[in-house]
Amino acid sequence: MKYNFDIGIDRRGTSCVKWDMNEIIFGREDVLPLWVADMDFEVPPCVTDAILKRASHPAYGYTKRPDSLNEAVVSWEKNRHGWEIEKEWLVFTPGIVPAINFFVDCFTQKGDGIIIQTPVYHPFIEACEWNERKLVNNQLTLTESGYEIDFDLLEKQAKDPSVKMMIMSSPHNPVGKVFSEAELRMTGNICCMNNVLLISDEIHQDIIYTGYKHICTAMLSDEIADNTITCIAPSKTFNIAGLQLSAVIISDKIKRDKFFKYIMTKGLNGSNIFGIVAGEAAYKYGEPWLNSLLKYLEGNIDFMEDFFEKSLPMVKMHRPQSTYLAWLDFRSLGLTQEELVRRMVHEAGLGLNDGSSFGPGGEGFMRLNFACPRSTLEEGLNRL
Ligand SMILES: Cc1ncc(COP(=O)(O)O)c(C=O)c1O
Asked: Which domains can be identified in the chain, with CATH numbers?
């Protein structure tokens, strides 16, 4: 393997959220942090090279996004996902969490209903609460074969005239599900028929494991495309979240113009100079690195599966189809969530995400980030 992911990177002392905030987040220094969704690996060399090259030119003034960045995004979507988009459909934002808050503010009013699917990435919940919207929970149903969407409930919820938006994590964080074409089509159609704007957050679209294929929701029909805003970013894929570059794809001109105007009124139409060069280099030259990374991550999943089966059969791992986040089910232990979290931090010395922070359906679960060298993962599992 050209890239050696067994060699991690010491991130301590770099103002790193994962490694430098143990005391603040967990109340003790000595936990092994396997939580926030970035990776303990070096970025692809093409990214470092691009940043160093740009940094060596010592003028960092106002910078426009070059057309080559747009072209890199368009090519990536076409080659990796088979989705043909126009450059004009792109609007750049400094992150997907900011973008989601902007959508809520721009396309809905106070008191409007917004559908989410818990247990889900908690900033979706916060975007509704902070903006004083009504949370409408289409909770995912856990069956023997995994998580499923309750479409009867979704139809009922979408029909309520006060419901104006649905925010979907596709693939889904934290449950790691890759939605099927049928599920996405059904969701897209229900939203279209009921005039509910669909936000398809596809930030995890590139982290997909053997046997699964990510489908971009907006590819499914012209009607669905017109009613969908898609969120993508190089940040999860190439480990550059700190560079704050993400893109939203809006094919419908009226919605795009409205959103672009909104971005302008917030004075946020610029991007960070290093985010620009890193994002472009990653999309243009980072694919071989990504393919190696996926093999390594899949090896980590096999390792965890084997570990749980042999050593901790009372913990059930839902084998991730996507994302580098394992959704661990501790319910058979019969502990309260408070006790589960206390034991995790104070007895195991492990810093995981508390499942209940992802909303209803998250109680009894913890989320573990396995984008780390296998030796770190092994230490984490032994602590568990
Ligand atoms: C579904 C989802 N959306 C958005 C983000 C974060 O986006 P950003 O860092 O661009 O704000 C994450 C990070 O884990 C995520 O899982």
From this structure: 22-44+287-383 (3.90.1150.10), 58-285 (3.40.640.10)
